Amino acid sequence: MSRPRLINREEASAPLDRELLVRLHDLMVKTRVLEERLIQMYKQGHGYFWIGGPGEEAFNVPLGLLMKKGQGLDHDYLHAHYRQSGTLLAMGEEPIGALRQMKNTATDPYSGGRNFAGHFSKREWNIAPVSSPIEVQYSIAPGTAMAQKRHGGDGITIVTGGDAGTAEGDFASCLVWSSRPANPLPLLIIVTNNKWGISTTADGQHGETRISDRARAFNIRCKTINGNDPLESYRELKEAMDYVRKERKPFMLEALVSRLYGHSSASGANFVTNEVDCLKEFEAKLEKEGVLTREQMDALRSRYTEDLATAARQVRDEPQPAPETIWNHIYAEKK
Amino acid sequence: MANMAQAVRMALHYAEENLGVMDIFGEDVGPPLGGVFTATQGLKNAWNSPLDERGIIGTAIGLAMAGQRPVAEIQFADYIYNTIDLLKIAGNTLWSSNGDWNLPMVVKTPVGSGIRGSIYHSHSFDATATHIPGWKIVMPSNPLDAYGLMLAACQELNPVMYLEPKALLRVKGEERIPGEPEDEKQLSKMIDAPLGDRSAWKPQWPALQPYVVPIGQGKVVREGAQVTVVSYGRTLPLCAKAADSLREQGVSAEVIDLRTLWPYDWNLIKGSIEKTGRVLYVNEDTEVTNFGEHLVRRTVDELFYKLLAPPRLLAGKFVPGIGLADSLEMASVPQQADITEAIRKLASEEP
Question: What is the pTM of this model?
């Protein structure tokens, strides 16, 4: 196949090759299908609560692809929020883990049946546990970044959260702690802005023109991007990450994204039609540019749908954690 | 002998030299002040944080996630309340990640009355701290234990809350810290920062030796036969003094310094109550949903038929704050006379 025009755009600072476009698409589809399966499991009574990130795939997938994966200070730390399945899948995580967490089985790799869906944790890859209180991760992230700064190398810390959460003091803490002239930190501060806080609209909270403007007061380099475009997201994330890796200073990236199934199952988890669907738009582009055909994309979706349905059936038969395990892991013990 | 603030300082010095503690931080913890109680003066790894308690606890969690061993300070426990959800997270991170992420971190904070600190420099925190699972909670009542508990805390794999009874921070010890010079004036000259310009000052640390008070281990500080008194922190020396004065009057009180509030030394308490048949729990936090109430409940549950008298709790009054006036503070939290009287009364109580 000839090189598609899409990837030769002049404004593209780093041309994306076909292989990467196909990979982005594959992971976006996989993520969307996973989230839809999780919602279905919830609606069928195979879980108590759903929260996730359908509508953020175009941003979350590139983030996962660009992270320096591994354990310890030489690798990137991620302090994520609960809409980040695309990032985990892009890092190479198997989707069945998310299904196990939804079904709160003993096999749930992130919390052993203790925590909500979308609350990932994987120390092996520096994925800090996602917790339900909004924005606390912004107070915690400077800690890993500080250790990385002292350690040297090019590992960075990445923190993500939503727009509504920026009202919490922890967001201000993050700006203050990462930009102190005495010790600026290699911290990529990300806000995915879906313009909602559960049911509260942006005009109920945001007097600032752009959330990223808040970084300017702290002399933190910042940008607002279209997080519904995976190519723009990939390029801008790469540029921001390169800056943080090299300069050992913070960067704030605000990504405008969609929220396609509402806040969570508490608001019904039904598809909304009045927001941009990043996957639909990307597929139209890929088809137009001749990267993939409609048939190829439909086949991919069918395959993932089938895979996830099979995985969900498997998970349904897996045991719940034993009651006596509530006493496990209250304290770590010396081995 | 060293006072408790000097003991904490020496323990942290030992920890930064030998136990991998690379961050000792909080408001005014680093130079030039070295802590409002001087407990962090002269430490090479002490640094000043922004005035942001949530940032302090959050950063400590992050540092611990990254495999560091942070010691974070909240300047007064009165200001720790806006970090409660982060303290909850520190306590539940290992559990909620099903054993994946442990957090080796220490949070130290001065607690309690005794310096006429009024409403916002007198709070106790033991009742609240013991309500947050996943933490280990310690509270020394003398400099040697302060040293030994800090060394234990800095070797823990889990979050440790280190409560400093602020009324005792300036009180000298009766037992020498291993490595501490014999002459206390010499110690002061070596490790206390001079008044005025300190920019060129460097401490001369004595050759400190390791000494660990294991977390979870209480100590009998006075042996007795008639009544058991269990306390910690500021009220512990008052209980010991009460036992001494009552002994002259023929009352035999056994005094236990709990030292660790969680996980606490139940075997020590239980053994003593089985011997005396009477127990008084003493602390100065407000008395409703007080940690001592838990101890009373456990005493009733497990030792009811061994008791000669109801288990008692002497604690702070359930009022919104400790008022500034001497009369108000004295009326709000247990004082020497209250403790002595409570022990005397309980010792003579019969079924």
Answer: 0.96
